[in-house]
Design a protein that fits this description.
single chain, alpha+beta, five-stranded antiparallel beta sheet, four-stranded antiparallel beta sheet, 1 helix
């Protein structure tokens, strides 16, 4: 009998086919596992997406805090304590096309960090108020303010200087908030740093 007359696969061909099938199966299993992990991570991020987007927007607004030297029809003073900061920004806000500026108030609540956004017109009159929560389950929130004035250079717990902006603002909190709140430090663009 001739081997060529028989139909089917030889043992070697069968082993090669099984090895290829095993490689393809492993690749499919790995891809499926990666997809499941990606889905889980996306679901986790979607629950904190709003707070993180607000944190990024807060950084942009704070960077562009209006200094007291700005000539507008309303006060633009910057004030801060250990648990509250208030400032005015002229940075654009897509959700407030009719406002001349935004008055931002960031303050601690009972285990929360709250953001209040007041749209103001050219006279300083509030148009609309928006209240948001930046973080929950947050504890020991602390605001501090840095000045480069050589007489008092360094970090301070309060900012009461109505004629200048702080060079830096830092917000810290204990670990365990939702979403996680790392140390948040912002350099104010319009701060006077050359004394």
């Amino acid at each position: 009998m001739n081997w060529r007359d028989r139909s089917g696969l030889s043992l070697l061909e069968l082993l090669i086919a099984l090895a290829l099938l095993a490689v393809i199966s492993a690749a499919l299993a790995t891809t499926t596992n990666f997809g499941v992990q990606l889905l889980n991570r996306t679901e986790q991020l979607s629950s904190t997406n709003t707070e993180i987007a607000l944190r990024i927007r807060l950084r942009r607004w704070m960077e562009r805090a209006a200094g007291p030297q700005l000539i507008v029809g309303f006060p633009t003073t910057f004030s801060g304590t250990q648990d509250r900061v208030e400032f005015v920004t002229l940075a654009p806000a897509p959700f407030a096309p009719d406002s001349a500026a935004l008055r931002i108030i960031l303050q601690t609540g009972t285990d929360t960090l709250n953001l209040q956004i007041n749209e103001v017109d050219d006279t300083g009159t509030a148009l609309t108020n928006h209240n948001r929560v930046l973080a929950t389950e947050i504890r020991n929130v602390s605001f501090s303010y840095y000045t480069t004035d050589p007489d008092i250079a360094g970090w301070h717990d309060t900012w009461t200087n109505e004629t200048a902006l702080p060079a830096l603002v830092r917000i810290t909190a204990d670990q365990g908030s939702t979403p996680s709140w790392p140390e948040f430090t912002v350099r104010l663009i319009f701060a006077q740093t050359d004394y």
